[in-house]
């Protein structure tokens, strides 16, 4: 069985310090959280950035500042910027981090009702546009899917040449408006991707560690972090992203999975360090 790649989603665009005081906003806070996750065993840092007041931004200059600072503390980590941005941003605004030529970036494969009047919009043309940009810039997309239909979209656009193989999926499970975080639905998604594809599971909230366990057993990979879950156990706020990663490492050890280094993660995912 392949070694386990752990991704740390250190902040997201929705959670705030009011939810958990350790949610990072500033460059220094992002470096702290990335470093704690990296030292605990994360190979990939999934990155959203904020202004110092916590406002989400896709500004490429802010991304560059944060990425450069993280690389000082985590020199071989894979930094995976988000192109999801925040609800209401334009396509070109969301794509700004790709101008920095990262090894990987996320590509959302469908539209989602986040709740209330918030719609996270990703039309077919948007997905094509993002996919083509990543091919042009030699960026491996992590295909974020919130439901089975988004896997079908990715497979269809792969056949049309907008997404290259081997594909790497991120099953984001338990989000309002998306697929549930049950084991039944995990198996459904897992059995819906090509045999040569890899996948990561990002369970939201209380689904984080049960789905992490399922992925560890199945041979998949795991994403944890404050973007997805604020708690280390029921009712107990986590002290850091590093603490969440440490829990996954303990689970993996108990279940007999070794943890991938960044170099091993690159080999599994077919990446070349830049």
Which features does this protein show?
single chain, 274 residues, alpha/beta, TIM Barrel, two-stranded antiparallel sheet, 9 helices, 36% helix
What is this entry, summarized?
This protein is of the alpha/beta class. Helices cover 36% and strands 20% of the residues. It has one domain (6-269): TIM Barrel, CATH 3.20.20.70.
Q: Main sheet?
A: 8 strands, parallel
If you consult CATH, what is the topology? Answer: TIM Barrel
Our count of helices gives 9
What is the succession of H and E elements?
Answer: EHEEEHEHEEEHEHEHEHEEEHH
If you had to describe this structure to a student in words, what would you say it looks like?
This protein has helices at residues 27-40, 60-73, 91-94, 124-136, 148-159, 183-190, 208-218, 241-255, 262-269, and strands at 6-9, 44-47, 49-50, 56-57, 78-81, 104-108, 112-115, 118-120, 140-145, 168-173, 198-203, 221-224, 231-233, 236-237. With 274 residues, it is of the alpha/beta class. The chain has a single domain (6-269), classed as Aldolase class I (TIM Barrel, Alpha-Beta Barrel), CATH 3.20.20.70. The chain has an eight-stranded parallel sheet, with helices on both faces. It has a two-stranded antiparallel ribbon with strand order 3-4. Strand 11, helix 7 (208-218) and strand 12 form a beta-alpha-beta unit. Helix 1 packs across helix 2, helix 1 packs parallel to helix 8 (241-255) and helix 7 (208-218) runs parallel beside helix 8 (241-255). The longest helix is centred in the C-terminal third of the chain and has 15 residues, at 241-255. It is globular. The relative contact order is 0.18. The mean pLDDT is 96.
């Amino acid at each position: 069985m392949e070694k386990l790649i752990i991704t740390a989603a250190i902040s997201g665009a929705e959670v705030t310090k009011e939810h958990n005081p350790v949610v990072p906003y500033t460059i220094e806070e992002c470096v702290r959280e990335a470093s704690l996750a990296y030292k605990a065993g994360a190979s990939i840092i999934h990155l959203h950035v904020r202004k110092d007041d916590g406002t989400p931004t896709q500004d490429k200059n802010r991304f560059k500042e944060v990425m450069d600072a993280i690389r000082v503390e985590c020199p071989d980590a894979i930094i995976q910027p988000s192109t999801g941005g925040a609800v209401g941003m334009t396509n070109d605004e969301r794509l700004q981090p790709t101008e920095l030529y990262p090894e990987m970036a996320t590509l959302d494969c469908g539209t989602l009702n986040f709740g209330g009047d918030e719609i996270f919009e990703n039309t077919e043309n948007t997905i094509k546009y993002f996919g083509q940009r990543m091919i042009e810039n030699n960026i491996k997309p992590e295909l974020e899917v919130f439901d089975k239909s988004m896997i079908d979209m990715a497979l269809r656009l792969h056949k049309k040449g907008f997404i290259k193989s081997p594909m790497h999926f991120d099953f984001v499970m338990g989000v309002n408006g998306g697929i549930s975080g049950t084991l039944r639905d995990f198996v459904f998604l897992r059995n819906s991707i090509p045999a040569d594809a890899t996948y990561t599971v990002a369970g939201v909230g209380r689904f984080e560690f049960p789905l992490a366990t399922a992925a560890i057993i199945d041979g998949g990979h795991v994403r944890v972090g404050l973007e997805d879950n604020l708690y280390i156990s029921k009712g107990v706020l986590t002290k850091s992203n590093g603490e969440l990663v440490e829990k996954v490492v303990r689970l993996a050890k108990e279940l007999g999975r070794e943890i991938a280094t960044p170099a091993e993660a690159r080999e599994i995912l077919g990446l070349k360090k830049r």
